[in-house]
Amino acid sequence: MPKLKLPAPPVPPAFKPKPRRPDEHQHTAIDHAKEGGIGAIGWVDERMGASGFGRWLMFRKVPKGTNWFYTLGSATMFAFLNQAITGVFLAMYYDPNAINAYESVRYISNEAFLGEFVRGMHKWGSSVMVILIFLHMARTFFFGAYKYPRELNWVIGVALLILTMAMSFTGYLLPFDQRSYWATVVGVNINGTGPLVGPYLSDFLRAGPDFTATTLSRFYAIHMMLIPGAIAALIGAHLYLVTKHGTTAPPWMKAETDPDLRTEKE
Amino acid sequence: MNHRQKEEYLREYSILKNQGKPFWPYAVAKDGAMAAVVIGSIILMSIVLGAELGPKADGTTTTYVPRPEWYFFFLFELLRIIKPPELVPLATIGIPTICMILLFLLPFYDRGPERRPEKRPIATTAGIFTIVAMGYLTYLGAAAGSPNEIEMEPPPSVVAQGEQMVEQFESGKQVVAQAGCLACHKIGENGNDGPGPHLDDIGARVGRDAIARTMVNPTAPMPSYAQLQEENPERFNNLVAFLSQLKGEEEE
Fold this sequence. Notes:
Chain A is mostly helical. Chain A has 10 helices and 1 strand.
């Protein structure tokens, strides 16, 4: 990591806070307000004890040589947060039944304030998230970062990848236009060709042997509740393990022991 | 990795970690910059590309193009490449399932201590091959058109059967074109080569009733046209008539 030195803001001398004189008393309202924030955080921490967790999470060290490739994981998480936030706003207008679904999406696109913009962010955010998750996975793969002691985190990551693809699949139906409807019909049929669980899986997805009105609300529930909850929980586990084991160093980095230790002092 | 290699790795890592910088604010600044780029590009894509909404879904009409989201193209293309019907389940479920299991178990069968990509030729080659294959399949999927028009003159055998037959043939051809059959089937020079079989000589191979039965109760992943039969039997009959007249004469 290159040296990142934050420059001091260019404040004219007249505005710079002056150091307090020792004989000044701290009894003005501003002094109390300044203490207030610290006091409130201290009050909460005294009862929750979360500051240790915060220190553990934020003040851990990142190994030497960490580069921009290491931001892909957090970038994927931000794409997921984008999906979660825009998704909440879309859900405020969306109506998950076969009769009104299309109309409500049309309302979002044409009438609602910034509706098309938010829907566009949700739609393209899914592509961005899929791209980022694959890039993150490629980085992990080529850097050998899935090896001891991070095997379990790789498994969680693969589960997150599959859940992300499942999100895309269930979300594709929701606008309920021709394209999404027929692509989903074919997609569910493809699931049905699978061995053993295939037919049961496609029956579960369709809520029966045929594509009916219930299918849409089922896809909606899976897309809105089941998978996002699982993804959020698994991201939590993923981050816990990343923090516990630390982010990997690039594979070509070698720990250099202090050369002074090797030279014998006379 | 045996016990010694594990200890070695952990010791080496802890030295590197101690030589590093704290997560806050150094890594957070980078992550934040990256997050801004990501959200910025999503906003840009939303403004520039928008979110189109096609016509309302309708199980009875047949004007549709079943296309998945672009990042499923590589799975969809597998279907086109693997043609024999007995191998189709392999393409639809077999290969993706095997890939998923291989991915899940990666850290359990690749347990060597080496981490540098240039020192792991098998893993690196496999990884690059996978990326190239997925990229190529996605490109094929994006390039494959879903034409909704068929250029085809009624063959002489149809003309010989009189005006009414020609009319039925023409309107059946239109139903086939609108129904998006060509997304998966090839008729003459039209349509895509797979996942479904060629329909050039379907009328010669399969009887008219068998075609109608297949349309209503098809082999997955083909969608069923039962709803069309119920609600618009005339169009359905034209469709079946058109298909049963395809006898591959032009090639003979």
